[in-house]
């Protein structure tokens, strides 16, 4: 889609779905969660009303750490299905619910367990680093998982003489390769939303306001263009930062400019505006909307809490094999500042250790 056609396109149709069904909706949600002994976790890309009512909001790494340690009997995961699966993998004795079980992920769909097994057979002895945006079955075939906030730390922990299979996001993999200097085999997957945020879209946004700072998620197709623009002097290098969603929250807290352009899914803007109301945060692409994330609506969340649906199940054998890869992700790398809990920051512990082939 060209920049001109994007400008002509109507506003996203999901906006009206953020409206709670009643004035006391938030109170009903919190009361039902308390009755069920449920904690509500919400990803940064969720609708604003969902983020506001959740007990914890953050990126995949922060929410995984929380899911592994919360004392509640149930976890209500407001995100896409692989996130709820990850919570179930980490907390097999808890009931994990998601307001809409059909909320999938185009990136996770780019690789299957069979495809991964075939890829591993082509590269015996390689360590498999799987982005968290994968199914439980793929995680079970992997040695260690990662998120965009700790992917570089995870890759750096792999012995230098060990080949790495990085999957499934090629843009994140390319960014991690640049940061770490490691040559890796990259699976050619991509998030369809971040793929649409290309170099042309970013260049136009910067041209419209050269004074703005720019935050770019490493899944974006424009990540390489951002670095090239900085290297060429088209924009000062200090004005562009390629960071995860948790990194964006950190950058927002200390932002000193009047305007920041944000290249990622538009749900992220709500958290950035919450942590720094003095800065104007605008999307590089206003139509960067994940339809799967937006399937979790206020009405569906209320219904899920009332009826105890939809429960997420993971085959126990698959979960047992995947758990090691996810737990290594949680232990490896730096702690994240990207989760808010009742307005405060939640961190998790970090205990470095190097993954090896076959560890998953």
Topology readout:
Blueprint: H1 3-8, H2 25-36, E1 38-43, H3 48-53, E2 56-58, H4 60-69, E3 74-78, H5 81-90, E4 95-97, H6 113-122, E5 127-131, H7 136-140, E6 144-146, H8 151-156, E7 164-167, H9 170-180, E8 185-186, H10 192-195, H11 199-208, E9 213-216, H12 223-232, E10 240-242, H13 245-254, E11 259-263, H14 268-275, E12 280-283, H15 298-307, H16 316-331, E13 339-341, E14 344-346
Parallel strand pairs: 1-2, 1-3, 3-4, 5-6, 5-7, 7-8, 9-10, 9-11, 11-12
Antiparallel strand pairs: 2-13, 13-14
Word description of this protein:
- The protein is α/β, with parallel strands linked by helices and 360 residues long.
- It folds into 3 domains: 10-103 and 293-313, 3-Layer(aba) Sandwich (Rossmann fold), CATH 3.40.50; 108-190, Rossmann fold; 193-283, Rossmann fold (3-Layer(aba) Sandwich).
- Helices cover 40% and strands 15% of the residues.
- It has helices spanning 3-8, 25-36, 48-53, 60-69, 81-90, 113-122, 136-140, 151-156, 170-180, 192-195, 199-208, 223-232, 245-254, 268-275, 298-307, 316-331; strands at 38-43, 56-58, 74-78, 95-97, 127-131, 144-146, 164-167, 185-186, 213-216, 240-242, 259-263, 280-283, 339-341, 344-346.
- Strands 4-3-1-2-13-14 form a 6-stranded mixed beta sheet, with helices on both faces.
- Strand 11, helix 14 (268-275) and strand 12 form a beta-alpha-beta unit.
- Helix 4 (60-69) runs parallel beside helix 5 (81-90) and helix 5 (81-90) packs across helix 16.
- The longest helix is centred in the C-terminal third of the chain and has 16 residues, at 316-331.
- It is globular and about 55 Å long.
- The model is unreliable at 1-13 and 333-353 (pLDDT under 50).
């Amino acid at each position: 889609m060209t920049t001109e056609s994007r400008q002509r396109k109507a506003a996203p149709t999901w906006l009206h779905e953020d409206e709670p069904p009643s004035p006391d909706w938030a109170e009903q949600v919190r009361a039902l969660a308390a009755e069920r002994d449920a904690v509500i976790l919400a990803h940064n890309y969720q609708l604003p009303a969902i983020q506001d009512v959740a007990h914890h909001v953050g990126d995949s790494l922060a929410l995984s750490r929380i899911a592994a340690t919360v004392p509640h009997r149930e976890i209500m995961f407001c995100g896409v299905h692989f996130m709820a699966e990850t919570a179930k993998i980490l907390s097999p004795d808890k009931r994990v619910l998601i307001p809409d079980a059909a909320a999938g992920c185009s990136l996770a769909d780019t690789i299957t367990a069979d495809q991964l097994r075939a890829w591993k057979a082509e590269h015996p002895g390689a360590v498999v680093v799987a982005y968290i945006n994968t199914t439980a079955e793929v995680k079970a075939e992997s040695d260690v998982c990662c998120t965009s906030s700790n992917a570089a730390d995870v890759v750096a922990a792999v012995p230098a003489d060990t080949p790495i299979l990085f999957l499934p996001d090629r843009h994140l993999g390319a960014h991690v390769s640049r940061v770490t200097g490691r040559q890796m085999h990259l699976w050619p997957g991509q998030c369809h939303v971040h793929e649409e945020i290309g170099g042309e879209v970013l260049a136009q946004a910067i041209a419209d306001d050269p004074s703005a700072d720019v935050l770019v998620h490493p899944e974006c197709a424009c990540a390489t263009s951002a670095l090239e623009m900085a290297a060429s002097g088209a924009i000062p290098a200090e004005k562009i930062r390629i960071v995860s969603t948790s990194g964006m929250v950190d950058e927002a807290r200390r932002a000193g400019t009047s305007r920041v352009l944000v290249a990622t899914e538009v749900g992220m803007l709500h958290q950035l505006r919450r942590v720094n109301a003095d800065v104007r945060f605008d999307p590089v692409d206003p139509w960067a909307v994940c339809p799967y994330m937006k399937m979790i609506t206020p009405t569906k969340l209320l219904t899920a809490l009332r009826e105890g649906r939809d429960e997420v199940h993971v085959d126990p054998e698959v979960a047992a094999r995947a758990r090691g890869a996810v737990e290594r992700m949680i232990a490896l790398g730096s702690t994240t500042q990207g989760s808010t809990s009742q307005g405060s920051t939640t961190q998790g512990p970090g205990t470095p250790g190097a993954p090896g082939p076959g560890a998953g």
